[in-house]
Amino acid sequence: MDYGLLNLGSIVLGLTAIALPLVYLAGRGDAIRRRWPVWTVGSLMCCMVALCLQPFYTNHLIEIEDWGALLDTTWGVAYYSAGLVGVVIFLNLVSAGMRFLENKAQEQE
Q1: Cα–Cα dist 81/98, whole Å
Q2: What is the separation of C-alpha 44 from the centre of its chain, rounded to a whole number of angstroms?
Q3: In whole angstroms, what is the distance from residue 8 CA to residue 43 CA?
């Protein structure tokens, strides 16, 4: 197995987790707006899977005893993970707030 794909998959899924709420926030059509839960759950799931791939790569580095790579990448993985979680939560809270405001505006009409 090519363990480098774990890092690539983590990056792609992390970017997808960030992109999904941005697509929702930028979308103007009813098809996008009605499916708010799908965008939010999809974003959170991509974030979770991206974070789950990292321990497998770390385990691979431990198994092959590549201590240098482990020492070089551990801090980056920690900051990447914290940053990803923070950005994804923030964007999904913003999209939830927008959804709440849209529903409130529709109720007042």
Answers
A1: 26
A2: 6
A3: 17
